[in-house]
Every structure is written in C-alpha cells, then in structure tokens.
Amino acid sequence: MRVEGARLQGPGIRFCPSPNQGQAYAPGELDTLILHYTACPDAEAAIRTLADPAREVSAHLVVARDGQITQMVPFDRVGWHAGVSRWGDRQGLNRYALGIEIDNPGQLTFADGQYRSWFGQVYPAADVVWAVHRNQTTPTPWPRYPAVQVAVVAALCRLLVTTFALRHVLGHEEIAPDRKIDPGPAFPLDSLRGWLFESPLADRTWRGPGPWRVHRAPDTQAPVQVIEAPEPALLTVLEERGDWCRVRAAVEGWVRADQLDLPGPLAAAAPPSPAGGPATPKGSV
Ligand SMILES: [Zn+2]
What we know:
Layout: E1 2-4, E2 7-9, E3 14-15, E4 21-24, E5 32-37, H1 43-50, E6 61-63, E7 69-71, E8 77-79, E9 86-87, E10 90-91, E11 97-102, E12 109-111, E13 114-116, E14 122-123, E15 128-132, E16 139-143, H2 147-164, E17 168-171, H3 172-175, H4 189-198, E18 205-206, E19 212-215, E20 224-227, E21 235-241, E22 244-248, E23 252-256, H5 257-260
Parallel strand pairs: 3-7, 5-11, 5-17, 6-11
Antiparallel strand pairs: 1-2, 4-8, 6-7, 9-10, 12-13, 13-14, 15-16, 18-21, 19-20, 21-22, 22-23
Bound molecules: zinc ion.
C-alpha cells in the first residue's frame, strides 16, 4: 500500500469519488488526521451517504469491517467530515485534516437483554464492549472493532502521517466534544497515537557532544537556538520526520537527523489491538 500523488494504491483498494469536496489544501496547512465511525449498518451504506450530493458530507477513506479500503476524496482536496470543530486555536478542522471513516454502528443501547444500534440492528454480546467514553461519565455498550479493521486503520494512519508529515491524529469526539462521540472507546485511539508518535521513540535519549542547532521548525531557514552539551543524554528524540528530528532538551525544536547520528531506523513496533444515535449535521459525519 502506498500513496501516489493524491491516491492510495494497492491490492483491493477501491476508488469511489464523492462530489462532496472542497478546494485544495492551502500550502502547509494539512497536518492532521481525523478518525470517525460511520454509524451506518455497513460500509456500503456509508459510501452511499458519503457520495450523496444532498448530504454534503464525505471522507477521504472508508475502512470496512473486513479491512476493505475505499477512497472517496483525493488527498489533495478538502473533505467534509469534521464540521463545526475546534482544536487548539483552530476552528473548522476540515481545511487542515484528512478524514477516515471506520465502519462501525456506533454507541448501542441495552434494553430487554438486547444490544441495539440507533437504526435498530441487534448485536450479540460477544461483539460488544462496555466502556466509558472520554466525553461521558458512565459505562455504555459499544460494538467492537474487528482486529483486522483496526490493523488496517493503524497502517493507513502510519502511511498518511509519514507521507504528509501529519502532526495530529484525533478523534471526531475530541474536536467536537459537545456533539460527537466517534470513534468512541472501543477504538484504541490513545494507544494508536502512542504507536504512531511516541512509543517507538520513548527511550530515544541521545548521548553526544553537541553543540546542536535546534530549529523552531523542520526548516533550515527557521530560527535557531544553539545548544551546548555540558552533559551526555541531553536530547530526547520525540519524532522523526524525513531528515529532521523533533527533540526535547533545554528547548523543544527540530534538529537535522544527521547531526544526531541516530543508531539506525526505528524498530518495528506491533500496531495496537482493538479495545476490549447520531444525527449528522451538514459537513460533518
Ligand atoms: Zn465523525
């Protein structure tokens, strides 16, 4: 699986274009990936919705429960999945973010011994996990994400983070917490972020003589603070991006990787495994 231009390429990957898309991303603004669940009976129903011009919603990718991937918006065009949203000092995340829709019916209700989705489908207890949503306070039932589906989403996240130098992988529930609960606690979002951004690098404290030129951005023209190294173990590598490493030392910033002479590529880490009535406003799924 690879990205060629604005398209995902690989065995079995489908392309079903959606008319629901905006302009190209402004240069340098794409740096985020938003994860959603579809809240639909199956992936095909979600794809029909995301291709319906009357609904005015879309996402770049849909991942079915069996791991089948469908691309609906090219990676160089804004998709309509985040809606009214905020992260940090930004609002309206669509213009900064790619979107992945994960086929999952969403939060269930439990009554008369049965687990039901908002559209009335009944699910066996073996397919349900009780968990407390990060935006809620009491345990509720959620349909499990199959391991193969989580593995495909994790691989997609890693590919997109690497290809487009993304800095954030967020749930819709985190950028619109007053109205959204997807992808929900059955999806291992926190461990996925750890796998993508932190855990492979957690012990990467670099010991060396310095001095290092620490840039505010991964750009040789960005402002620099020169750090002398009175002691070893001065720099912790937080993230690698191309020829650059984001480091934490006396300051946090970016150094050229060739200044650090890092000991080889990162060890492959195992991807995370899955954790044990949604209205759809315009431009948001
Ligand atoms: Zn969503």
